[in-house]
Amino acid sequence: MAEGERLVGGQLLAKTLKAAGVTQAFALHGGHLEALLKGCIEEGIALTDFRHESAAGHAADAYARSTGKLGVCIITAGPGFTNGISAITNAKLDGSPVLFIVGAPPLREVETNPLQGGIDQIAMARPATKWAFSIPATERIADLTAMAIRKAMTGPKGSVLLEVPIDVLHMSVAAGRATPPAGVTVSPRPAPAPDEARALVNLLLAARRPVLIAGNEAANAPTAAALRALTARLPLPVFTKSQANGVLPAGHACDGGAAGNLALLPLMGIEPPDLVILLGGKMGLLLGGRSGAVVPNGAKLAQVHSDASEIGRIRNVDLAIAADCTETVKALDDALGAGAPAGLDAWRAAATSAAGVFAASFPETETANGIHPFHAARAVAEAAGPDAVYAFDGGEAASWGGAATAVNSPASVLSHGYLGCLGIGPGFAIGAQIANPGRRVVHLTGDGALGFHIQELDTMVRHRLPIVNVVLNNQVWGMSIHGQQIMFGGNYNVITKIEGTAYADIARAFGCHSERVTRFEEIAPAMQRALACGGPAFIEIMTDAGVVHPVTVSMLGQLEEGSDDVMIPYYENIPAG
Fold first, then answer.
1. What pTM did the predictor assign?
2. Is 577 a catalytic residue?
3. Cα distance between residue 299 and residue 280, in whole Å
4. Helix 34-42 vs helix 9-19: angle between axes, to the nearest 10 degrees?
5. Of these residues, 420, 511, 535, 546, which one is catalytic?
6. The predicted structure's pLDDT at residue 520
């Protein structure tokens, strides 16, 4: 670096991102960010631009989930920041390492009612992120950016936010005065203590019906490799939350499918698990909440998670391990030695049999009122295959997609988490396609969710991304209207019908290859044409609005006849009195 050289704030920030291995960022233009955008181009960091900040944030989130690398989203001040709040929060709740860089008015114009100012962005962001901070001076850009990256990428991972005022970003500083970006590649992988590994082995040896549930922290290639090695000699049934689908390849003898399948075992006359190893997952609604339907209240529970404060949420655990998932599985495998429990093959066969019950309960591919949504989703998945990447959006549509799809690698199914944020689909699909340029990406959504970010079809066309978009169009807000009718009966509905929109025509106007399908047998050939078209494609499948997904019924918590309890959609019912 030449003596006396000065560096603009945007250069410092871009150089720090490059030092951290960042090669891709997702953005929407704003004048506050010009110095950074210029710096990214100079440092060889690719920029993918969007039509809405939230979609850009969802894309950075999906990129992080797919690659395990840092996702970066660059959005402007004021409305740019507020538009991004849903994506910021979604990444935080699902433990996705995304750095959100937001602009701000000049520090020297504070409290002057400046353009896109007048709000405390950091105060708003703190509850929605793992860490949020405003960079106060140009010379501090590098070390504070490095700190943000470390916080995002170390356990528990999550979203972080850096606010960079426009004057701080555009001013220059002598190169020698700029702080160095230390620690941008820190990546600890804590292993369980030897006594914790032995305790896990003891629980496993004492169990007759053990299962493992893989969560988001297990949805990565190293953990998948460790689990495949373990199950090669130990027939342990493995169930997954959606993002971990694929830790065992499709068709693997130990693959039990979605964690929700565990709730079916008692209905099939099969005893529930007596030990649950929760690997990298959080307890909550997506694992049956406090009901005990998925993680039986009578079962012993061993929970592995990078965030020790998550262990023991909702119920006591018999073994708490605050460690990396891959290292824990390896330690378990090593500690088992030759002592793997015998006689598990019959239990594995019984436990994994629940995966086929769901599909068998929907014999009709078509009804009098349209294509059955489960069979529509399964036909889409069969056409795209287990090596594709799937982005599922919508209430019931995402649930149909998840139930119909089997994949060969983890982080190949990206869907809703604890925020329950509709509209993630287009951004997730774009981020996943950029993260996986050699794989096909399928975005399956409902017609309600599609309306949030349908404009990102334009982004797919402009960037020539060969994403296959599929909308299951039943012309209603499916989970909402079905919930209303379960609660109030008959044909009751209030603001839950969205009839008459021709989504295939809208997609065609954006420049997508586009088709509308009204018969089941038309889906496979339409998918083949979409996959072969070489660019973004869109298939509108007309489905039966009367078909209710079982998850909707379960989330309403049915009342016994004569009960005075108060039914509460999506949460525990309120006891009478």
1. 0.95
2. no
3. 18
4. 50
5. 420
6. 97
